[in-house]
Amino acid sequence: MNIRRLRPTTALVGAAALGLTTLTACSTNAGDGRTDGKLDVVASFYPMQFLAQRIGGPAVHVSSLTKPGVEPHDLEISPRQTADLSKAGLVVYLKGLQPSVDRAIAQAEPRQVADAASYTSLEDHGTEVEGEHGHGHGVEGEAGHSDEGESGHEGHDHSGDAAADPHIWLDPVRYAQVAKGVGKALEKADPDHAATYKKNTTALVKELNTLDQDFRSGLKGRSSDTFITTHAAFGYLAERYGLRQEAISGLDPESEPSPARIRGLHAIAKKDKVNTVFFETLVSDRTARTLAGDLHMRTDVLDPIEGIGSKSKGDDYIQVMRANLNALRKALGAK
User: Fold this and answer.
1) Which of 9, 208, 221, 239 reaches 20 to 30 Å from 181, CA-CA?
2) What is the CA radius of gyration of the chain?
3) What is the pLDDT of residues 160-189, one digit of tens each?
4) Neighbouring-strand partners of residue 41
């Protein structure tokens, strides 16, 4: 069985044009990283955009390199967009997730950057399973998670951490750490609105802490810890809440599961009494539905929230995370 991303050519071309238009609009500033008095912030993809918008509020103008409906890993940056990055007041991105963005930032050398990977610790959730790479088993319990350095892990270098799982935003605790780092970066880039950024960061972190508590309480009394999903995006979430993630493919949704991996999933599903195979909104659900059909299981959406689109079960990160919690509660038999 094969798993392939959905790649509508016209959508990608249109998205690239939109991204170029958005960044070109920002480039009409006076060369100080501002447009009409507002700080120009360029986000690499939705989770970074959400933080910039919620923390920046009306003091910033936020554009995203990755448009709705475009899978972030597929993004390619044009030379013009690379040039325009240098004119932004702040670029918020996650090093290691989108190679084209990493290259563009290295070339453009923006005046200020906020790398989400530097505000928390990244882990390798890939494991070897019957010759398959990167199935991202969750680790039961919370060992290995640390709340240290919540104000930002300045100086962390993840450039040699090729196997590191980048999906840190799916753990509300780590995402709160990143929020604090982005807030500090906004204060540095725009000291005149520092008080606003501090206030908004505090409010968002409080909301993320509430979300964390809701996951903890909502997943109590479950009958199973194991869930099967399309690709290994949920390692941090699984580790945070004592779950076990079993992915059809690895950290890269492009990878194809071997027959051995499919046989392994059959055995795991029977042993752990799994009743649901999860798929996501931006990737083809064909393999997930085939596996579910073979095992007489149901399918549902567990959204990695790499973008918000018409199929998203919510209008923003918080809403979609709550939809994910409800889906997990149902699949795991939480009471």
Assistant:
1) 239
2) 20
3) 345 689 999 999 999 999 999 999 999 999
4) 62, 90
